[in-house]
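Give me a protein, keeping tokens residue-aligned:
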Amino acid sequence: MSREYPDWISPDRAAEGRRIFRGTIPLVRLQRLVPLLVDAQGEVAFQAAFSRDMDKRVRINLQAEASLPLVCQASLEVYEEQVKRQSELVVIEADGELDELPDHCEAVKVEHGRIAIADLVEDELLLGLPHFPRKPGLQQIEYSTNTESLVKAGHDDVPRAKDTKNPFAVLKDMLDDGNAD
């Protein structure tokens, strides 16, 4: 782990000095991210550059990059998801300031006049995670409960049940009998 940053930063002071903080954070320190990973070995590299815009708002140009071990939802194999994110953040003190922000910027609310760099980096990684992790290069998998459509598609390994009855056929017969009255 390299440390060229404090845990808590005053965004106003950092922007005045046009400070750039960079380093690595062990994944194990990112408590909201850890439960989504196979293991918490490794680290995330980041850079946070502070400045002020024309409206005197504090801006943070944040870059984060990590290799995150996830479970592929198609094959159930563990793979490394490469996450590389860059965001333009604007520091706000009250929720009322949200309406004044440019569309391309995300808001970061300060706590007692300070922010935690690790929280910003963790947010970026969480936003970079895929909704359904899928190992790169995995061939297309066709999912179906209809064996007839799979057989027509040329899948020879589909188990075929002989004389399979539809479990709802009895209900259909009962409804048909009830409608006859």
Observations:
- The two ends are 79 Å apart (CA to CA).
- The first helix runs from residue 11 to 16.
- The beta strands are 3-4, 8-9, 20-26, 43-52, 58-71, 78-92, 106-109, 115-116.
